[in-house]
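Page 37, continued from 36.
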């Protein structure tokens, strides 16, 4: 009581951190490293935890500031396409680049009289366009992969998805974008999944590649995508799809195989299935950038009265939800303050 300071200690053992820091990453300052001018130097805890923070920021599926893997892998092809289109256009015009005219515009642009806008938003993306973009992101992952690191549980030769014979060159030939799109579209249409689930699927896929230090390649892409969709549908959608439902879509796969693949997928993710809103938004806008760079623009339509009223209604709904969230947060804060004040008053009375 009063101005006295008390210190309490218990005999419990201290808690061990979730991830141990390597000794090489956190060097210990010895007496030889300390100069006479500076005196004794004690390393701050933030400096010792810096390697872990850097590792987290380098993972795009966990940190919003890290660039997505698929966008980085697509840049090489995008630059080559731009250069090829530029040279072809110059040769077709038969003149120098300086005398080249801009040509016909293939993209719709808004004017003073007409506004072109698409129906896709970060909260309600366009399903067909989003699946196309996710399939394109997976295509670039496979095409520009660093190596062929894989695991047996995802190998289609050892765990086939159908009774049809797997081709001998299944691990060599890269799948086309259309093939990946058809595979994902079939699962989404049969299971009635949403466009948001497709974005979360891509987040889980890149998190798996980062955590497990593996590559998505021709021999494993179907099972990796299937595992990511299975997990995303259970975490994101309110009406989750059971594993047996996927067995009805893919007739030849067994429930035991689905359960085993899901268990391995979760273990490789270290059971980290959290997708922050900032990470989700980053993947959404990066997918839109990928679509623009590959001429997969979202369908644009003129903004009429009905669409304007619809957008206004959606914005009002989001605004009301935000206000309700703020009110609930303020109520919890006020309740916590009242509880603290009550405890203080009880302590004074006692």
């Amino acid at each position: 009581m009063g101005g006295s300071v008390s210190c309490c200690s218990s005999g419990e053992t201290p808690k061990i951190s979730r991830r141990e820091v390597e000794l090489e990453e956190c060097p210990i300052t010895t007496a030889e490293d300390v100069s006479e001018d500076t005196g004794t130097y004690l390393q701050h805890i933030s400096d010792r935890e810096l390697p872990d923070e850097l590792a987290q920021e380098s993972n795009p599926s966990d940190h919003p500031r890290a660039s997505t893997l698929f966008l980085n892998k697509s840049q090489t092809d995008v630059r080559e396409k731009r250069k090829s289109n530029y040279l072809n256009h110059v040769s077709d015009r038969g003149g120098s680049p300086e005398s080249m005219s801009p040509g016909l515009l293939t993209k719709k642009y808004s004017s003073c009289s007409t506004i072109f806008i698409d129906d896709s938003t970060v909260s309600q993306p366009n399903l067909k366009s989003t699946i196309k973009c996710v399939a394109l992101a997976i295509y670039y992952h496979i095409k520009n992969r660093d190596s062929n690191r894989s695991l047996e549980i995802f190998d289609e030769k050892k765990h086939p998805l159908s009774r049809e014979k797997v081709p001998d060159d299944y691990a060599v030939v890269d799948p086309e974008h259309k093939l990946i799109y058809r595979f994902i579209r079939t699962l989404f249409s049969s299971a009635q999944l949403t466009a948001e689930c497709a974005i979360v699927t891509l987040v889980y896929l890149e998190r798996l590649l980062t955590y497990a230090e593996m590559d998505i390649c021709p021999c494993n892409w179907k099972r990796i995508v299937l595992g990511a969709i299975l997990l995303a549908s259970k975490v994101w959608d309110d009406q989750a799809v059971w594993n047996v439902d996927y067995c009805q879509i893919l007739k030849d796969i067994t429930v035991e195989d689905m359960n085993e693949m899901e268990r391995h997928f979760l273990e490789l993710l270290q059971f980290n299935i959290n997708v922050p809103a900032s990470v989700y938004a980053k993947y959404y806008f990066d997918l839109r950038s990928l679509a623009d760079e590959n001429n997969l623009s979202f369908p644009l339509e003129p903004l009429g009265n009905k669409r304007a009223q619809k957008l206004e209604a959606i914005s009002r709904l989001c605004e009301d939800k935000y206000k309700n969230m703020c009110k609930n947060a303020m109520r919890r804060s006020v309740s916590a303050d009242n509880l603290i004040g009550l405890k203080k008053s009880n302590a004074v009375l006692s």
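The radius of gyration is 27 Å. Flag for discussion at group meeting. The chain has a mean pLDDT of 76.
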